[in-house]
């Protein structure tokens, strides 16, 4: 842990030199992973609740025993004069009870995957326990889901989440529905193409939920972890290592707009000016009635087939022409595509339009996806693809049973493209339009989360 914290120190100094006001480190970045409940015990520190008591570990290190990690992080924030968000292994003593409803483990302590936030003077200002664990035997799910925010003088409020949390209503959507538009996100994300690569989905959530997401991912090639970014509704600053790149860290620094309307209002009041936040739609053009026509007016579609994508049975149709219109449905959920392909030289690539509505493991989805197939056989549609040469102008549309739809355009070799136009209508129709690609299309996706149907 000391070795990792030494690297954190170097990066904090570099970030401060570049004028950063808040610095986010990845999930598991200090202690690593693959622990059992008992083998992690030497890495745990008790993290007091900043809502209950005020503590600055840097200036008052004697207050609690065995808090070296908290002290290092606190002094790092203080010495570099910036807010620091880090992830660590935390524990909390709990009352052993004969009450069968008690969630206190037999060891008499909870072990939590924990985010900690330090103010620029080193004060511990927030603590968040991960709610949605991903095969983490060493940690407990908190007895109650936590919705944790913290205030900053430079941008107002931020909300906290960790890795797998981003796919669930609590805490992510609960924070968004409370009006939080700035989310801090340590993660150890295993990339899952074609739909859930790190930069692809984290960018999509930022666009679809209209929020800023500060996403710090681990880099671990064997586990296919990598891809971090600073995503706002207007921009994406990200790094995604390619296969064969040296396995090393990367510091990303970006200047981003403040989205906290209360903070903006307060600033405006103090300056005596009215400062309205700019409109945050990502539309570059308006939708012409013909191009956004109802999916039901499309011509009859060619033969459909089922193929597995991300372990879900998607219904697909092939794009057999250089341009055209297609429909595909999974039950009553339908996706519509209008497209024009620009093949590269003599290279042959197969593309398909897929639809899926149903449970993925225990969470409910509605997905429209245009994908490059791994080979020239339809059975390869839905498999992992990282590169493509065919560029595409397209309009992808679906009628969703949720307002939580996340749009993405992933181009060859993990490059993000910003959709030219993304629109949600009151009747559930969601449209994404894109043209003039800089490289070949790997996936274009509208990823709908039906939180209310989760199992």
Task: Explain what you see.
This protein has 455 residues and is an alpha+beta fold. Helix content is 13%, strand content 33%. The chain has five helices and 23 strands. The strands form four sheets. It has a seven-stranded antiparallel sheet. It has a six-stranded mixed sheet with strand order 6-7-8-9-10-11, covered by helices on one side. Strands 1, 2, 3, 4 and 5 form a five-stranded mixed sheet that branches. Helix 2 links the parallel strand 2 and strand 3. Helix 1 runs parallel beside helix 2. The longest helix is centred in the first third of the chain and has 16 residues. The two termini are 38 Å apart. About 5% of the residues have low confidence.
Short description:
With 455 residues, the protein is α+β, with helices and mostly antiparallel strands. Helix content is 13%, strand content 33%. It starts with a helix and ends in a 6-residue tail after the last strand.
Mind sketching the topology for me?
Elements: H1 2-17, E1 22-24, E2 45-46, H2 68-80, E3 83-93, E4 109-118, E5 124-129, E6 149-152, E7 156-160, H3 169-177, E8 182-187, H4 198-209, E9 212-217, E10 228-231, E11 236-239, H5 261-271, E12 305-309, E13 312-318, E14 323-330, E15 333-342, E16 351-360, E17 363-372, E18 391-399, E19 405-411, E20 415-417, E21 421-424, E22 429-434, E23 441-449
Parallel strand pairs: 1-3, 2-3, 7-8, 8-9
Antiparallel strand pairs: 3-4, 4-5, 6-7, 9-10, 10-11, 12-13, 13-16, 14-15, 15-18, 16-17, 17-23, 18-22, 19-20, 19-23, 21-22
Helix pairs in contact: 1-2
